Amino acid sequence: MSLRVSYLKYTLNFTFEAGTSRGTLTQKDSYFLRLVDSDQPDVVGYGECGPLRGLSLDDIPDFEDRLSEYCQYFNHLDLQLFDWNVTVILNQLISQQHPSILFGLETAMHDFLSGGNRLIRDTEFVHGRRAIPINGLVWMGSHEAMREQIDQKIAAGYTTIKLKIGAIDFDKECALLDYIRGQYSPEQITLRVDANGAFRPDEALAKLERLAKYQLHSIEQPIAAGQHELMADLCRQTPLPIALDEELIGHMEYVDKFRLLKKIQPQYIILKPTLLGGLRHCDEWIELANRLSIGWWITSALESNIGLNAIAQYASQFKNLIPQGLGTGQLYHNNISSPLRIDAGTLRYDPATPWHLNGLRP
């Protein structure tokens, strides 16, 4: 009896051209991990490794080679079910330079331990008794295309709308916010924007002051990551709350996390397990944020329903959640069929709906 892990590359096809600050996406590659016991091959734990192009620490040309090496090394250890610990194995096996692999193996292990039932956290959410509030994401595009998305999201029941900005003329982006505020008060519709680091430092404060009149909940990453002094100054002077996103990537040590948050003192941080090294690392970010009175929320990073399920279950263990960024399950033509569904601005899990994973079998 010993544990074995393998992987399968899977290309996800978008249902539309997804505009981002790093270009337009039509496809995304993910790598599904399969963890099995040699004596019980019908029990399979699944995890997803999906580095984001141009953003992930492990977006490297030889990613698949590194993943293959980790799988071979894991299998060489010849681990028995009774003598392994998730945290210990991850620390010993995988470099912190590969956060998406950390996330994939960690969640595959938790799934395997649940009996291969896709159970990462046993909460009210997975029993269908709790919904997670989520924001409706408006992708970058032309003014007309973004306005159409806004109308669709509000009609679908979302009460928190998030706009990606920085791709079109700033005046036109403000016009979109004006369009929403002309119809809905902050009590009716909460607005978030994500600049993905698009603002120049010399213009950032002026743009934040202009955005503040729309009574936004927050702005994500107004300037590019890595400018800690400038970001700290901006967080002290800002007229609206700032959320760190890309800024967190690469800070894998606990002390390093603490120093970053203590220095910048943002109003919020955004946690993407695929980019940050999995659920254990998110635990550390949350503990530090709570200690420093910094708000936070959790966001998926274009994972399939395999990764999204793990992230949603992780989020569901926390009480009094503000809207999370977990609405990416409808992005793909060929997503993995799952019990996850979106209903009136919330993410739900229907225990009566089965998973269909035949396409992931070797």
From TrEMBL:
It holds the Pfam family MR_MLE_C. SUPFAM superfamilies: Enolase C-terminal domain-like (SSF51604), Enolase N-terminal domain-like (SSF54826). PROSITE patterns: MR_MLE_2 (PS00909). InterPro entries: Enolase-like_C_sf, Enolase-like_N, Enolase_C-like, Mandel_Rmase/mucon_lact_enz_CS, Mandelate_racemase_C. It is an enzyme of class 4 (lyase). Keywords: Lyase, Metal-binding. The keyword Metal-binding applies. Its EC number is 4.2.1.113. One of its GO terms (molecular function) is O-succinylbenzoate synthase activity. Residues 143-241 form the Mandelate racemase/muconate lactonizing enzyme C-terminal domain. PANTHER family: O-SUCCINYLBENZOATE SYNTHASE, O-SUCCINYLBENZOATE SYNTHASE-RELATED. This is o-succinylbenzoate synthase. It comes from Fibrivirga algicola. The lineage of its organism: Bacteria, Pseudomonadati, Bacteroidota, Cytophagia, Cytophagales.
